Amino acid sequence: MNRWVLLEHKILSNNLCDIHYDFLVEDKLDCFTWKLQKIPLIHKGFVKIDKQINHRLVWLSRAEYKLSNNRGLIKRIDHGTFTYIYQNQDAQKIKFILNGKLLKGSLTIDGNFCQLTKNN
Question: 54: part of which helix (H) or strand (E)?
Fold first, then answer.
């Protein structure tokens, strides 16, 4: 099955709260993972995105989770299934059709940026 999830990752330290988002896409044995500083919204421009190491499949089904060693709290923001539209050989440019509630449409990842547009 082609599942994906958008996780909010809060890290609390010294009265500071750092929030970023993790976007995970199911692959056969694990999940391709990217870190986003904000949630991409339809036709709101590009969002900075950084490729991370692949994450375990268990993250696709967790709604909330407290990480060990004060690494933060994880909360699922959105999830659903996807369809691959395009992927080049070095996986620097990928395009998905997402069917979530918040992320619904065509998500293009191009290097260190992503953009969500309405699915035509």
Answer: strand 47-55
